[in-house]
Amino acid sequence: DALNVSNSTSTGNIAVFSDNSTAVLTLANGGGALFRNQTNSATALQVQNATGADTLFTIDTAARSASGGNLVKIGNSTGTDTDTTFLVLDGSTADPSTNIAALNGGMFYDSDDHKVKLIENGQVKIICNTTDLGCGTGTVTLQSAYGNGNTINTTDNRNIAFNLTDQSTDPSFLIDLQCDTSCSTNGKFAVQDDGSDVFTILPAAGGITVGDNTLNTPVTINSGTGTIAVGTGAQARTVNVATGAAVQTVTVGSTNSTSSLLLQAGTGNLQIQTQGGTLGVGNNSVAQTLQIGNTTGATAITIDAGTGTIAVGTGAQARTINVGTGAAAQTVTVGSTSGASALTLQSGTGNLSITTQGTGSLNIGNNAVAQTLNIGNGTGATAVSVLCGTGTCGFGNNAVAHTTTLGSTTGTATTNLQAGTGGLSLTSGANITLGTSNTTGTLLVLDDKTDSGDPTGVAGGMYYNSNLKVFRCYDTYWRDCMATVRTTYSYTMEMGSGTGDNTFTFDTSGGGTDDGVDGVTSHPSIMLMGTSTGATNWVYAGSRKSDAIRLGNGDYWRYETVFRIGTISDDTTDYFFRAGFGDNLVASDNGSNGCYFKYNDDVNGGDWQGICVSGGTANNTVCDTNVPVSASTWYRLTVAVNSAGNSVDFIIDGTSRCQVTTNIPTGSGNVVGWGDAIKKTTGSTDITADLDYITLEGQMGTSR
Q: Measured between alpha carbons, how far is 42 from 55 in angstroms, rounded to an integer?
């Protein structure tokens, strides 16, 4: 008969199978099954055939190693033909469409297309194979590729190359334009720029066109060391170059070898002019020196262009352009203040330098006329650098109120503000606004730290830690900007009345006092701690558990308390006060484990001490804060243990006073609680302290 296990209550588990009190198989209410080995194993779960000779399915929960680990395997790598174990995918006659984004990484067999398919980024795709090249199209040729689509899209840094190799009978690269009738602009060979022809060969003797009248297309004609002759016959004639209506650039001549450029005219005039375009002198691809005029006498040079553009050295080749570099004192004027004149200074990938020879000022656009100054250009990867040495670079920092704009909101324009180790400061006499009010919403994206740990902190600093998936803020220490229980622990006791909770407790011996009293200015609802008159009485306010925290090991812990002591310890009434982390803060000795402040008039001249003890009272390290304890004085004591567990900072009223780097309890058994405590050793005086608040904060190094 079958074994029938029934859960008649419909609550709890149906069955739990345990190995030495550890549940290894749980059948939950409703039929859910959970397998969890007591220890990880390479054979955590197996399915074998009847003889046990063939393993069909294995789950390996062991740690990843050269032999495997953390994997699910079909078969046992020993199959041949009928003994081979197969993973057979589910079949479907149509692609799935419901909640497909949730199926990323899934696979199935399309029984109509006879293809294995997968789902990537919410899309169904066919898995290609080496048997069916092109995933079902058979042998791939350029003709078959064209039949599947007529566009080839290149990828980053991957050129297309056709090599006509040297052979006994050299091959040719032929493009045969076979249209003979009614061709018009069809059947052509063309090279295009953004869809517009810049080089065209029309069939049926339709002609060859170089350049385009609708684009700013440069045309270059070279002939090696030969001669390019345009209109050099003896007949009088007019030669027009680039007379189209569109804006264009014309380059005549070459700087290669000993090439010369001769522009000549008979008794007529030689005119180089623009039709609203650009007049370029010396803007070819070779670095060169252009001299116009001379350095002797009072030579005047004027370059005018009407309402057009005057371009000097605007070619693609890196070069240096010097204006007004003679030894004599001189004034150089570039541009005009008349009308709507514009002045553009630009460079390629080199530098644009405007310097003075002395202590004079370098003024750009400082006349009385409202104007626009453009430095660089809006095309290509133009770089503009403004360098100031050890001085200050000022943009729009004169006394006149105005608007300074850096960058552009056009298209995908990017503006980078960057600095080295000196930092980047954005200051304003009013608000600093990011983005504009609209329906899009501009994001302020902080820097992302991808591993554990925090950078060096600066007050007011903030960044995003993708390792913890939290925003981090710095104010004397790093903490989560928006506290979450995954990475932060926080507890505060204030407005105390002598009653504890699940975390916090008040405790006394010998009839001591732990009750609330009236608050005072800046210290609301004070908790009175009193030892009563017994010679060895004590009073304690702190964690209910003495083993609540393990310091260090990647977690940052910070304990803080505000209080004032009513009476100073002396030989007649002797006591000590402790505040911080510890497994027994009322112990007569230093306790076994802890890091805390301690006060006693007989020790260290009555100054606050910082003490850490680990694994026994003899293993302790003490630091002197050099801050004496005074009666009826409010103190804010802070004990901060870094995440590495190798440094403890003892802070009084917000100022770091001393540090301890040894005997910090970080071992697996060296756990601690936290709190404030008064422990009397002699005398009959009731020793009291007013407790304002206790707060504990933990920053977890690993998200829980």
A: 13
